[in-house]
Amino acid sequence: MTSFFKVNRSFSLSTKIILGLAAGILTGLFLGSYAYPFDYLGQAFIGLLQMTVLPYIVFSLIENIGRLSFDSGKELIIIGIKVLVVLLSFGVINLFVLQLALPEWQSSNFFSSAFTAKPEQIDFISLYIPSNPFYSLAASKVPAIVLFSIIIGVGLMKVSGKESFLNHLSVINKALNQVNKLIVKLTPLGVFAIATATVGTVSWEEFGKLQSYILIYTAAVLLMTLWVLPGLIAVVTPFKYKEVFTFTRATLLTIFATGKIIIVLPQLIDNINELFKSKQLANEQTRSTTDILMPLAYPFPNLGTFIILIFVPFAAWYSGHVMGWADLPLFLGAGLLSSFIAPVTGIPFLLDLFHISKDVFQLFFVSTVYTDRIRVVLGAMHLVALTVIATSIAQGLFKLPLKKLAAWAGVTVALYAVTIVGVRQYLSFSLKDAYTYDQLIRQIPPRFTTDVQVTELKKAGPSPVKITGWQSRLSRIRSRGILRVGFIEDYLPFSYRNKQGQLIGFDIEMAKLLATSLKAKLVLVPANPDRIKRELAKDYYDIVMSGMPLSSELANQVEVSHSYLDLNLALLTKSYTDELKSYEKARTLDSLRVAYVARPEFVQLMQTYLPQTIGVSIPTSTVFVEKDTLIADALLTSAESGAYISLLHPEFKVVNPFPEPVTVPVVYPVGYESTEFLDYVNNWIIVNAKQGKIDKLYQHWILGRQVTQPKKNWSVIKDVLHWVE
């Protein structure tokens, strides 16, 4: 492979990078999941590039700001801010119009742990205020580092005898720049390693879920990078469209390959200086202005980071919670502030702000393997545009020809119109049959393999063999070799039917495990949720295993096991999604009709939070789904069960109207006079919890983790040569 890189020295760096990228893609396809060691090489290369960047930013800003007079420095900063505002306005327009490319569709997801999670608090103080500059450097708090460097530079503006110190800083900056250039020569090898690891280890099925977001964001990046920004530079400065790419092409490719702007910031500054030299416009002032503006603008929002926030409307759309026009001002305002920080921090904050499941963020994290590459390319072009335009203004090179500006704006509008219409039409076609969760949950396989014999009774009735005076329930189960388990019909995800009509679910599998532990056959008996106490008293079944939430009323009626799970109370609704998604909004409703199945005590619990709640009893949740608003405004259920119902009926959404998480334990009611059997069940629950089986079933049936787990990537070494499994 090393001979591959012994290419003709006349090849440009950008050509070598492209060859390294191509070789990496081919190697990743060949090795598949066995390409993971290359990730270490890629990370090592990125680490080398990062080595000189923060010191370069600190010394460069201090030196260049320190050389300015106070008046000239103030003027330059004002120019930079004005250009930044203009560029970010393009980002606002993009976030506004790009949502139009998302077609209408219904979607839902498995239960999200983010439903009860508190939003992460962003420490803006430590992010922007360098109370301890050494900590800020160690923690890579770039905004704080930049502020520290600016303050020191401003302080040097009025210090006499500073030239000697600034000259020493200049020498250090040149040394750091030389080191960076040496490392950049390794870029083809670094790109090869990164591409190999990415193509080999990231599942394309995961990217398939994200095609809408990836397609829209890619279109925005291409339009902004290849036309809007370079076209604007060509209109208002002396430089031609082609010249912008001639001097920045290799650096942009390096940024694409590494996913980092900061590591080639010195190289990007050199590119702009060379651009000015090509027109004989370079002088000490242009160099100094470029050296100041680029590092100064880096920690501020750029279009790549700002426009990637389109993921938030996408996440709402993907989850079925479409953001309305009323949400747009808050989204744009909060998005602008969030773009000051990395997307991996800012996007979870915005998801929480709009009550969108943060589990969707996992999809964003997967997509960053690709989107981070193009995001930083747009970010780099943003920095180029800002620096070139601001420097041109400062040097009197700025122009504003109205005809050219109108032509550029007209082409831009036309390109966006064609792109949005085209993307929307394509997505409408490709997503026509994309929703499959309603079919998927009807064919979930068991998490564990058991050979227990299962019989389902069509009609409930007392056990044919009575418990004699000397016999306990546990001894009857063991002597007969039969465990009778009551189940509630269609109580997702605990007991429901698959496509073949067989009973499946969390507690159906738990029942099989319990029967296996008792070395008994399993008899499943239909249970009426309104008559659990009576049917247990008449010995219809030994135990009820169907996700029964515990309340003081239930505990007073029957014997129950230890809790094996906690559920979160929530509402399921179709027409009142916005009104019930927060406690503050729910309180404004004059009355709230809430349907419930068999358990009025939970309506009473809800009334302690929302006194205007009116309970409406229904026999099954299916009645609400079929008639919904004719019966009630919402269905009171658990978030876990509600999520499953919404998977079958994505027009319904799970909402949390409570000011805090309201959890209830889930238990197994057992038959009367079952002390020995109850002790056995309690110990059995403890053992299965310690062995991790309950947690594995939770992830399997409720979170849908293994159900939606993608397959390994296709690879030559596995699927063609069959050298590995």
Strand count: 15
End-to-end Cα distance, whole Å, is: 25 Å
Biggest β-sheet, characterized? Answer: 7 strands, mixed
Q: CATH superfamily membership of the largest domain, which one?
A: Sodium:dicarboxylate symporter
Uncertain parts: none
Structural class: alpha/beta
Tell me the helix content. Answer: 55-70%
Strand content: 5-15%
Integer count of domains: 3
List the total number of helices: 32
Describe what this molecule looks like in 3D.
This protein has 725 residues and is of the alpha/beta class. It has three domains: 2-430, Proton glutamate symport protein (Orthogonal Bundle); 445-563 and 668-702, D-Maltodextrin-Binding Protein, domain 2; 565-666, Periplasmic binding protein-like II (D-Maltodextrin-Binding Protein, domain 2, 3-Layer(aba) Sandwich), CATH 3.40.190.10. 57% of the residues lie in helices and 8% in strands. The protein has 32 helices and 15 strands. The two termini are 25 Å apart.
How are the SSEs placed, and which strands pair?
Layout: H1 13-31, H2 37-50, H3 53-67, H4 70-98, H5 124-128, H6 133-138, H7 142-157, H8 163-184, H9 187-201, H10 204-209, H11 211-236, H12 241-258, H13 265-278, H14 284-297, H15 303-307, H16 311-319, H17 328-338, H18 343-353, H19 361-394, H20 402-430, H21 437-440, E1 454-456, H22 473-480, E2 482-487, E3 496-497, E4 503-504, H23 506-517, E5 521-526, H24 532-537, E6 543-544, E7 548-549, H25 552-557, E8 559-560, E9 565-573, H26 583-586, E10 592-596, H27 600-607, E11 613-617, H28 621-627, E12 634-638, H29 639-648, E13 653-655, E14 663-667, E15 669-670, H30 675-690, H31 693-702, H32 716-720
Parallel strand pairs: 1-5, 2-5, 2-6, 10-11, 10-12
Antiparallel strand pairs: 3-4, 7-14, 8-15, 9-12, 9-13, 9-14
Helix pairs in contact: 1-9, 1-12, 2-9, 3-7, 3-8, 3-14, 4-19, 11-19, 11-20, 12-13, 12-19, 13-14, 14-19, 17-18
